[in-house]
Amino acid sequence: MQRIISFLCISIFLISCNKEKTDGFLINGNLDNVKNNSLVQLFRAEGRQTVIIDSTRINEKTFTLKGKIENPDMYFLTIEGIKGSLPLIVENETIDLTVYTDSIFASNIKGGKENNYFNDYQEFIKKIRTRSNHLTEEFKLAQQKQDTSKISSLRKEYEVMMEENDANDLNFMTKNNDAVLSGLILERALSTNKLEFTKIKEIYANFDEVVKNTRAGKVIAEYITANANTAIGSVAPNFSGPNPEGKTIALNDIKGKITIIDFWAAWCGPCRKENPNVVKVYEKYHSKGLEIIGVSLDGTPQQKDAKQAWKDAIEKDKLTWHHVSNLQYFNDPIAKQFNINSIPATYLIDAEGKIIAKNLRGAALENKIAELLN
């Protein structure tokens, strides 16, 4: 049921209005009950950082935020003393916001083209939310009673509900190709693997230029380019990065007869579990022309010393091949070149750099290497 929670969060967009023209955005907020002088902040998530766009203090249950942005996008509003943050799409227009302090997600926005799109979309989301809450409660009761038949039935009902949700998303994006929300929905879909690559390209191609020029639109365009460049049969894009000693290493400089590009991280449990298998394959086939270059996605906010964690993992797991990392987590430019959304992830390339296979592990990896080098 976790997927529906994150889905609902991203779906509760509050859209800008067109009440009065401004050079930038103007957010006029009214609250039903909150302390004077409480802090209000508008921010966006930029990689691992939080970037404050504007902030102010509440005065007599009202506040005003203003600024100028390049393109419409999703931002978040927080109010001191109120639980949670409110996602909203901000564009350079006037937004009238009514905040309900008992539930920030129930806040109301009036006006604007994007808000009209949102209201249509939100009607379906409200039904999904109600059904999801009902299923969650029934699921808890069934687990308490150890009613396996009921649990199975509820899981099927949940799957049907999510299929309806996916169909609604697809229908919305297809019909509303000029809506910023459509771009945000498609951007979210990139990490769920629910849509075939050809369908993603088709939807994006149908988007209005306004949507293509948003941040989400540009992310989708980069995804499409990277996916085309890293398809089986394509020549893998060259890349370079610093090794643990700070020396720059490029893929084209270390290629063997067969090369494994291995995306991993010290913090990644499945990666560390797979490492002994990769070590075994490397020791067996390195003399026959196998090379490996590990690309670490260390650099999470939780790592106090990401570089040391990376180096320690290399030593502990006895990974004696080439390694590079920009220590930027999933924002690593190499990860973006290869559309890496989860790890472990591997690419097999031949001596000319052509991609032969993807994401082979364990016996499947060894069997493929044996086939290619024996």
Task: Give the biggest beta sheet.
Answer: 5 strands, mixed
CATH domain class name of the largest domain: Alpha Beta
Structural class: alpha/beta
Show unreliable segments: 4-20
The DSSP helix count reads 12
Percentage of helical residues?
40-55%
Q: Order of strands across the widest beta sheet?
A: 1-7-6-3-4
Q: What does this protein structure show overall?
A:
This protein is of the alpha/beta class and 374 residues long. The protein folds into three domains: 17-111, Immunoglobulin-like (Sandwich); 115-229, no CATH class; 240-373, Glutaredoxin (3-Layer(aba) Sandwich). 43% of the residues lie in helices and 23% in strands. The protein contains twelve helices and 16 strands. The protein has helices at 2-11, 113-144, 148-175, 180-190, 197-206, 209-212, 215-229, 251-254, 269-285, 306-316, 333-337, 362-373; strands spanning 14-15, 25-31, 39-46, 49-57, 62-67, 73-79, 86-90, 94-99, 108-110, 240-242, 248-250, 258-264, 290-296, 322-324, 345-350, 355-358. A five-stranded mixed beta sheet has the order 1-7-6-3-4. A five-stranded mixed beta sheet has the order 14-13-12-15-16, covered by helices on one side. β12, α9 and β13 form a beta-alpha-beta unit. α3 (148-175) crosses α4 (180-190), α5 (197-206) runs antiparallel to α7 (215-229) and α9 (269-285) packs parallel to α12 (362-373). It is globular. The chain starts with a helix and ends with a helix.
